[in-house]
């Protein structure tokens, strides 16, 4: 009973704020994970998990029946849901993908600003377990399990300082990776690829040019990053 109580206390109690050096240092590490192409080829899978997870979450919230999620080795993914192929619900699902990592990162930044690093990590683990139930291919299963194992290892065995640093690293990663994913989307469109992208599907549904939807994705990502930086304490709010 005592262990259960200690476990619950670790989730519901706020942890001390890390030093500004830890906050900035984890941001720098996140930039390396995003900016160095050999690493980005692997770390981008985390962005895909968040992207497809956002599609799935909104699909469930608007009443569509989620059929499954697939994650691919080229870091692409697809979320399949059943329901009306047009209308506000479908538009909301398509809108969710690219802003998803940024909004998840912003929610994480808010949680960390209140001192709940451990609660954030356990919440992430719960979300990964729910996502795992929807995965429909082997690579996707492997990706979520590996990422979840890393998060679980830090959450279960890490010291409070390690847990806090890791939570900040994940938060920075989501906030900083989201704009790059939007840039890559537009680059692929300029190269004649990505014509089945979320932006192009939104164009077909709404008549609004795809490049404007890419702009919306980018603005959301940058706004989340700016607010996340303020909440982190790097610059005064």
Structure characterization notes:
The protein is mainly α. The protein contains 10 helices and 2 strands; from the N terminus they run αααββααααααα. The protein has a two-stranded antiparallel ribbon. A hairpin with a 5-residue loop joins strand 1 (65-71) and strand 2. The chain is globular, with a radius of gyration of 18 Å. The relative contact order is 0.15. The model has no long low-confidence stretch (mean pLDDT 93).
Work out the oligomeric state of the chains in this entry.
single chain
Fraction in helix: over 70%
The main sheet orders its strands as 1-2
Enumerate how many helices there are, as a single number. Answer: 10
Radius of gyration: 18 Å
Q: Could you tell me the number of beta strands?
A: 2
**How would you spell out the order of helices and strands?**
HHHEEHHHHHHH
**Binned strand content:** 5-15%
Structural class: mainly alpha
Spans of at least 5 consecutive residues whose pLDDT stays below 50 are none
Q: Which overall shape is indicated by the principal axes computed on the Cα atoms?
A: globular
Largest sheet: 2 strands, antiparallel
Distance between the termini: 42 Å
Mean pLDDT: 93
């Amino acid at each position: 009973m005592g262990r259960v109580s200690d476990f619950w206390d670790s989730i519901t109690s706020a942890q001390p704020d890390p030093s500004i050096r830890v906050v900035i240092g984890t941001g720098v590490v996140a930039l390396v994970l995003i900016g160095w192409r050999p690493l980005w080829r692997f770390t981008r899978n985390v962005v895909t998990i968040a992207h497809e997870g956002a599609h799935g979450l909104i699909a469930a919230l608007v009443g569509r029946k989620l059929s499954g999620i697939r994650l691919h080795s080229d870091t692409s993914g697809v979320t399949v849901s059943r329901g009306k192929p047009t209308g506000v619900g479908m538009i909301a699902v398509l809108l969710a993908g690219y802003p998803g990592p940024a909004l998840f990162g912003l929610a994480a930044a808010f949680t960390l600003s209140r001192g709940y690093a451990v609660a954030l990590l356990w919440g992430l683990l719960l979300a990964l377990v729910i996502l795992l139930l929807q995965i429909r291919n082997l690579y996707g299963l492997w990706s979520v399990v590996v990422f979840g194992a890393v998060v679980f290892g830090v959450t279960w065995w890490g010291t409070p300082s390690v847990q806090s640093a890791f939570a900040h690293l994940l938060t920075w990663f989501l906030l900083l990776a989201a704009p790059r994913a939007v840039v890559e989307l537009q680059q692929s469109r300029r190269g004649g690829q990505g014509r089945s992208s979320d932006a192009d599907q939104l164009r077909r549904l709404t008549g609004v040019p795809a490049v404007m939807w890419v702009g919306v994705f980018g603005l959301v990502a940058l706004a989340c990053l700016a607010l996340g930086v303020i909440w982190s304490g790097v610059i005064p709010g």
